[in-house]
Design a protein that fits this description.
Layout (H helix, E strand, L loop, with lengths): L2 H17 L4 E4 L4 E3 L5 E3 L8 E10 L4 E12 L8 H12 L3 E5 L2 H8 L3
Parallel strand pairs: 5-6
Antiparallel strand pairs: 1-4, 2-3, 4-5
């Protein structure tokens, strides 16, 4: 699947899951973009992933039980796509802050990560 097609499919899937109350997400854009007024808007840092997802999760231990929020960063790649050096650097920084970071190539991979069908 081409990355543009994958991005549309993933966006639709995440929108549905958000409407169902299963998660909250944002689509990220890196770089600079022209506005209608002729000015430039600055997006996320270079190398930012395509999506950030927040999903509540439950931990059940021997003597404790609690809810927490998973911070999940999703980078999409088409069939032959590879991460840039900027993306690899962003991933390292995010994982050092205990965020989950995934490079995926299908909706099925995302469903497995999110534990949602």
């Amino acid at each position: 699947m081409l990355e543009t097609q994958l991005k549309q499919t993933i966006t639709e899937y995440l929108q549905l899951q958000q409407k169902l109350g299963n998660l909250f997400f944002e689509r990220l854009n890196a770089g600079s973009f022209p506005t209608q007024s002729g000015r430039w808007a600055v997006g996320c840092h270079k190398g930012a992933p395509d999506f950030v997802v927040w999903k509540k999760a439950h931990f059940e231990g021997v003597n404790c039980s609690f809810w927490y929020c998973r911070s999940i960063l999703i980078e999409l790649k088409g069939y032959r796509g590879k991460q840039s050096d900027y993306q690899k650097e962003y991933q390292e920084i995010a994982e050092n802050q205990f965020a989950e970071y995934y490079v995926i190539k299908s909706v099925e991979e995302l469903q497995e990560i999110l534990e949602v069908s």
